[in-house]
Amino acid sequence: MLLGSFLNDNLVKFWHFTGFYNVTLEPSSLIMICVGLFFIYLAIKKNFEPMLLVPIGFGILIGNIPFMPGNEIGIYEEGSVLNILYQGVRQGWYPPLIFLGIGAMTDFSSLLANPKLMLVGAAAQFGIFGAYMVALALGFMPDQAGAIAIIGGADGPTAIFLSSKLAPNLMGALAVSAYSYMALVPVIQPPIMRLLTTKKERLIRMKPARKVSQTEKILFPIFGLILTCFFVPSGLPLLGMLFFGNLLRESGVTTRLAKTASNAMTDMVTIILGMSVGASTQASQFLTLDTIKIFFLGFMAFVIATCSGVLFVKIFNLVLPKDKKLNPLIGNAGVSAVPMAARISNDQGLKEDPSNYLLIHAMGPNVAGVIGSAVAAGVLLAFLG
Amino acid sequence: MIALAAFATATAQGRLDMRINEVMVVDETNLIDEYGNHAAWIELYNASHGSNGIEKMFITNDPSYKGKTKVNPYKEKEKEAFHEIRRGDGATKIAPCSHVVFYADGDSARGTFHLPFKLEQGKDNFVAIYDVNGDLVDQVIVPASLPANQSFARLAEGDINLHKQSREFDAREWGVRDGKSDATAITPGKFNARPVNDNIEKFYVNDRGGGILTLFAMGIVFAALALLFICFLLFGKAFEASEKKAKAALGEEHTTEHEHNAQPGSNDEAIAAICMALYQHLNAHDVESGILTFNHSHDMPSAWESKGNLLPHLPEVHES
Predict the structure, then answer these.
(1) Where do the structural domains in chain B lie, given as residue ranges?
(2) Per the domain annotation, does A303 fall within a domain?
(3) Is the four-CA dihedral A196, B209, A301, A359 of positive or negative sign?
(4) CA distance A344 to chain B (A)
(5) Chain B residues with beta carbon closer than 8 angstroms to that of A368
(6) Do A119 and B315 touch (CB under 8 A)?
(7) Has residue A175 been placed in a domain?
(8) Per-residue confidence (pLDDT) for residue A349, from 0 to 100
(9) pLDDT of the residue at A44
(10) Rounded-to-integer distance, Cα A180 and Cα A295, Å
């Protein structure tokens, strides 16, 4: 009798530990598991940003397996392994490390060859502030609106960095939204680009880029850091690491460090960052009306950024000499989805003229967009942080 | 032995000097926890001249647990209402005259300062802290009438002599704070909380449409990148000029030599052929399989093919 009671107690206890029992207490976690599976499907089957959506999708599965709290298992349980990994997201350690890798793998020579493309990268950041205004109109507080608006920069690490500082409770939805729209850049941008340009403008051929000396490439990260961070010191974690990574690459004497930063380290941080962000999206915080609003605002941010980039080039062309005109199709590349946005410029250019290659020209505003979005994040942090 | 006893007494005395200082039942605008959420909060104050470790003390919202010294882990109700402050967290050591905030958000798994119970609006909320041996340290009954976003605080909040006040609840020592004046300011301890940024409120009031911030921010983004633009425009021109100078210094001698030695493009082709030979020599063999074969090289793009991969269509050759 005693043994039976003992066994029964323990079986009941074990049953209470299982996910099958706990899912009855929190059935919404099943919806999140479906969201995670959908992300994995998109990544593997449709090849949408697989490097990010696989870790995020699987992270969503990890974060939404129902369990009994109190055993230091969950991502929000202090001391658990997942919680320790999540600290890098919450405290904003991972995004600067990713920026170090981005700096180490980015060649800024297309931008240096034609520095006026920096202004195109700056113009596209209006997507961020346009979305900020829309977010305010939808009832978000300024700090939340700022965190949401940064999605318009099309830069996942920047979005995570800023939301960890301004609106940590929205971070999961923000990160998923940012990465989703980055994957959808090829779908969102081309119709807008065609709509805002004439055939004649799309046929503009840009002058071949000049050769950039090694000295210029070395000076760029140093001057870039000093000039941007004197304006926006709050962007130092991102810009400092970006330019540091680029100096490792261009100095020519730290090739091994640059390779590690751009390959192994970035891969490791991406895995942990993606998984942690995914695991942080728990049903109670993710399945809300705010998340729907965030996805809408993310879409708006991308649309505004694309429009402002393309329109800026058109306006800029009014003051440029005839032989130095820019093809407005590179305006979309001002968002920092590198190199996807630049490839879209190239594809759209080739559709009009199969011998007009815009890739190299579009890489200029594309990498300027990385700097621009980091500066914009710094500005938002300075005002609202 | 005497020293040990004296130390133990001093420690216990220090913990008994902890006081519940301020409580908010419904917080929609004040404190944000480390996860970015608003929740009810309870502020404790160390009204002593020494640091106090509050680990293993108990905090509860249920008066029936008075005198308890242990939480029964198998009783869910008890676990939810009677919380033992966990050991091993350095943040539980409270400096003299310092505060610590506990969030009554019903989710103690979120960290040391998150409680398993919530405070309820519209009813009296009892809150008490007990020492590890079950001694009452302090208690308060927050009235049901306390409005949202207002706190119930000790009138002598922050006073070092607060510990001299009775451990029994005396409503005369407490008052409601609405945050509208300095005298009624809501002042939860800040070390483990992220207070709402006043600047955000100002932006919310003065820049509802976001136009001012947008104007400023876009101006700064443009200024930063325009400065870079000007800087590298000048650098570019300087480098181009120096390159031209260097070329000019080389003079016509080089040009003539080039014209004599090779037909146009022949040098590039020679370099390409050398590169191809080196590439095939270094990469063509499938060493891993242990069988020397060229098959593997068909699957791998050459340095030239990889350039083509960047472009969806290769340039068409137009014969004139």
Answers:
(1) 2-196, 198-261, 264-307
(2) yes
(3) positive
(4) 11
(5) 225
(6) no
(7) yes
(8) 92
(9) 92
(10) 9
Give the confidence band of B157 by pLDDT, cuts at 50, 70, 90. low
Q: What is the pLDDT at residue B267?
A: 55
Cβ neighbours around B86 below 10 Å, total: 15
Is the Cβ–Cβ distance between B58 and B129 less than 8 Å? yes
Model confidence at A28, pLDDT cuts 50, 70, 90, reads confident
Distance from C-alpha of A98 to C-alpha of A266, rounded to nearest angstrom: 6
Q: A114: distance to nearest CA of chain B, Å?
A: 8
Chain B residue with the nearest C-alpha to that of A376: B221
Residues of chain B found within 8 Å of residue A145, distances taken between Cβ atoms: 210
What is d(CA A78, CA A69) in angstroms, rounded to the nearest whole number? 11
Say which residue, B169 or A44, is predicted with more confidence: A44
What is the tens place of the pLDDT at every residue in A307-360?
Answer: 999 999 999 999 999 888 999 999 999 988 888 899 999 999 999 999 899 998
| Residue among B197, B199, B311 whose CB faces A346 most closely | B311
CB contact (8 A) between residue A231 and residue B220? yes
Average pLDDT over residues B135-161: 83
8 A C-beta contact, residue B98 and residue B121: no
* Full-model pTM: 0.69
Q: Considering only the beta carbons, identify the residue of A69, A171, A228 that sits closest to B224.
A: A228
Given CB atoms, is B298 within the 8 Å cutoff of chain A?
A: no
Instruction: State which CATH number among 2.60.40.1260, 3.40.50.300, 1.10.760.10, 3.90.1150.10 fits the domain covering B2-196.
Output: 2.60.40.1260
- Whole-angstrom CA distances from A221 to A171, A224, A366, B220, B226 are 30, 5, 16, 19, 15
Q: How far is B223 from chain A (nearest CA, A)?
A: 8
Computed over every residue of chain B, the mean pLDDT equals 74
Say yes or no: B209 contacts chain A, CB-CB below 8 A. Answer: yes
Given its phi and psi angles, is residue B210 left (phi above 0), alpha (psi -120 to 50 degrees) or beta? left
Inter-chain CB proximity B225 and A141 less than 8 Å: no
Q: Specify the DSSP element, H or E, that contains B94.
A: strand B93-94
What residues of chain A lie within 8 A of the CB of B203, using their CB? 142, 383-384
Let me know if residue A62 belongs to a domain.
Answer: no
Best residue in B29, B84, B213 to probe A by mutation, most A CBs within 10 Å? B213
Is B235–A219 a contact, with Cβ atoms under 8 angstroms apart?
yes
Quick one: what percent of chain A has pLDDT higher than 70?
A: 99
Average pLDDT, integer, range A55-76: 85
- Please report residues of A whose CB lies closer than 8 A to that of B35: 76, 168-169
Name every chain A residue with its beta carbon within 8 A of the beta carbon of B207.
142
Contact of B224 with chain A, judged by CB distance below 8 Å, is answered with yes
Tell me the pLDDT tens digit for each residue of A255-301.
999 999 999 999 999 999 999 989 988 777 788 888 888 999 999 99
Cβ neighbours of B310 in A, within 8 Å? 343, 359
Interface predicted TM-score (ipTM)? 0.87
Residue numbers in B near A70 (CB within 8 A): 108-109
Number of structural domains, chain A?
Answer: 1
Chain A residues whose beta carbon lies within 8 Å of the beta carbon of residue B36: 167-171
A364 in Cβ contact with A339 (< 8 Å): no
Length of chain B equals 320
Across the interface, which of A118, A213, A384 has its CB nearest the CB of B229?
Answer: A118
For chain A, say whether B316 makes contact (Cβ under 8 Å): yes
Residue type, B1: M
> For residue A296, what are the domain limits?
92-384
SS (H, E, C) A162-222: HHHHHCHHHHHHHHHHHHHHHHCHHHHHHHHHHHHCCHHHHCCCCCCCCCCCHHHHHHHHH
Residue A197 resides in a domain = yes
Q: What span, in angstroms and rounded, lies between the C-alpha atoms of A229 and B220? A: 11
